[in-house]
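for the recovery benchmark. tokens below, seq after
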């Protein structure tokens, strides 16, 4: 990516936080910290830029963005966050749920921070309340990890004959305990036996699918997790190759060949993060910006994947789908 800096600022930017060298203002810098990787996040970053543009802020014209990518490795986040703080930046944007949010909040208590929450940010201690976050943090709660029970229910409706479900979780994800509890309760409600498989590395993913095949798991829930999201193509391909019907948290999996997904409209969440980042650059304080809640949810099914797995969706399931991939 080519980045250019202009000497002057464009239309109305005089109120933004700026660093000054003598009499010449420099372009404000956003530090963007992501759990994910750049290639598979291109459409999400595009949505984030669209949100900035709603405030008249255009990368390369009146703002510069410094990107740091953890590539799904959570232990890299603290150092990357500290690196951004030391640039310095006018504000931070942390995407990818609690791992990125925690790393960014630990790196600074003064630089404004807009982040995406995947669990309850009040319960986790990141903010004081949803309506009045307080401190230097605000953002969007994507509720993704709270939807595991709904996903289990949809999966059971698609494969009602299955008596045992598998759940793939990342033991390194901060919300894993809550995820597991929700999934266990949902599986019990559905009357299915639950087998839990854990993967926190690329090697673990391959080993988990070996075990899933050996144990003849009839259906699989892939828990919502930024590490898994950054490996969605590989995971969807493994499930297809092993002949395992699987439910995922985001549309991207179904687009990559996965059977079905249920969750938030993630690009819209990134767009909202861009809108909030633009407001902060124009002078709004995170403490005064309420944490937003998602308003768009989507159930996506892939008919081509279903045919390959020998699954026929019922009329009821088809009627529930927001999108059907042919």
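predicted aa per position
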């Amino acid at each position: 990516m080519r980045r250019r800096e202009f000497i002057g600022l464009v239309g109305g930017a005089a109120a933004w936080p700026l660093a000054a060298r003598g009499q010449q203002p420099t372009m404000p810098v956003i530090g963007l910290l992501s759990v994910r990787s750049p290639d598979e996040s291109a459409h999400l970053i595009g949505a984030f830029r669209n949100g900035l543009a709603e405030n008249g802020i255009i990368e390369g014209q009146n703002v510069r963005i410094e990107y740091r990518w953890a590539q799904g490795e959570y232990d890299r986040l603290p150092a990357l966050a500290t690196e951004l703080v030391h640039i310095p930046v006018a504000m931070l944007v942390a995407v990818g749920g609690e791992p990125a949010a925690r790393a960014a909040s630990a790196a600074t208590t003064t630089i404004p921070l807009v982040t995406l929450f995947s669990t309850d940010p009040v319960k986790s201690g990141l903010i004081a309340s949803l309506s009045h976050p307080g401190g230097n943090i605000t953002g969007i709660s994507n509720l993704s990890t709270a939807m595991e029970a709904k996903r289990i229910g949809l999966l059971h409706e698609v494969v009602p004959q299955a008596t045992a479900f598998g759940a793939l979780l990342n033991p390194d994800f901060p919300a894993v305990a809550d995820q597991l509890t929700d999934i266990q309760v949902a599986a019990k409600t559905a009357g299915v036996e639950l087998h839990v498989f854990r993967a926190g590395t690329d090697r673990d993913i391959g080993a988990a699918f070996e075990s899933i095949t050996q144990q003849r798991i009839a259906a699989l829930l892939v828990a919502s997790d930024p590490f898994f999201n950054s490996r969605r193509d590989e995971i969807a391909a493994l499930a297809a190759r092993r002949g395992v019907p699987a439910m995922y948290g985001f549309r991207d999996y179904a687009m990559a060949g996965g059977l079905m997904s249920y969750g938030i409209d993630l690009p819209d969440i990134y767009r909202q993060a861009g809108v909030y980042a633009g407001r902060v650059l124009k002078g709004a304080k995170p403490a005064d910006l309420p944490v937003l809640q998602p308003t768009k949810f989507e159930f996506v099914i892939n008919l081509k994947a279903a045919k390959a797995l020998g699954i026929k969706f019922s009329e009821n399931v088809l009627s529930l789908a927001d999108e059907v991939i042919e």
